[in-house]
Design a protein that fits this description.
By secondary structure, the protein is α+β, with helices and mostly antiparallel strands. The chain has 3 domains: 90 residues, Ribosomal Protein L25, Chain P; 80 residues, Beta Complex (RNA Polymerase Alpha Subunit, Chain A, domain 2); 49 residues. Helix content is 30%, strand content 37%. It is built from 4 helices and 14 strands. The protein has a 7-stranded mixed sheet with strand order 1-5-6-7-3-4-2. The chain has a 4-stranded mixed sheet with strand order 11-8-10-13, with no helix packed on it. A 3-stranded antiparallel sheet has the order 9-14-12, with no helix packed on it. The radius of gyration is 35 Å and the shape is elongated.
Length: 231
């Protein structure tokens, strides 16, 4: 990461729900920045610059607080349940030479052999926890699925890490899997059900045919008896 996006922030002197509402009416987002052993500092962040910065995919930004340039890590973002707008954001102050822990997205690369044969690639883990210095934070991590056959998995231990990045997530957790299509199994179930229905219908048809034969025989016997009486 060569450089960090800058955010326009101001220190908030008012606290509480009403103060936060007034901050949002000014097209700003309430925020706090904290560091271990120090009291949290309430901030307000320009909404436009914040949304623009978050779209870069970066998690570390540069801010100026009390005339001091600082680097902060996004720790938590709260969204409005209806509008999905950001209503509050928490930052953690970091130093350039200090290792930090954070979540990084995982993406698959390549086309699995099992997929070429009709299988489905299923990603079961979308992010992992890593530790590194701010300048070494990767935008995302890749896992190569090219050699995956049908009904196989790749795990966290199969992710190749950039230099300086340490994995914190357990190695034995599955990340991606190539599975057989479920449609084939569903078709087999439907065919079995159809055969079962046909088997159930056959005895009823035989019984109906037998009843019809019995009625025909009774009718013929009755005709013969009537003929005999007339003679």
């Amino acid at each position: 990461m060569s450089k960090f996006e800058k955010l326009n922030v101001d220190i908030r002197k008012e606290h509480g729900t009403s103060a936060a509402r007034r901050t949002r009416l000014q097209n700003k987002v309430p925020a706090v920045v904290y560091h271990s052993g120090a009291e949290a500092t309430p901030l307000s962040v320009d909404k436009v610059s914040l949304n623009k910065a978050l779209k870069t995919g970066q998690m570390i930004f540069e801010v100026n607080v009390e005339d001091k340039d600082q680097f902060v890590l996004v720790k938590e973002i709260q969204y409005h349940p209806v509008t999905d707008e950001i209503v509050h954001i928490d930052f953690q102050k970091v130093k350039e030479d200090e290792k930090i822990s954070l979540e990084v997205a995982v993406r698959s690369s390549g086309e699995a052999q099992g997929v070429k044969l009709g299988g489905l690639l299923v990603q079961m883990l979308n992010s992992v926890s890593v530790q590194c210095r701010p300048a070494e934070i990767p935008e995302f991590l890749e896992i190569d699925v090219s050699d995956m056959e049908m009904n196989t998995n790749l795990f966290v231990k199969d992710i190749i890490l950039p230099e300086g990045v340490e994995m914190l997530t357990a190695d034995d957790i599955a990340v991606v899997s190539v599975q057989e299509p479920k449609e084939e199994k569903e078709e087999l179930v439907v065919e079995e059900d159809t055969e079962s229905d046909e088997a159930d219908e056959t005895p009823e048809a035989d019984e109906q045919s037998s009843e019809d034969d019995t009625k025909e025989e009774s009718t013929e016997e009755a005709k013969e008896d009537n003929t005999g009486e007339k003679e």
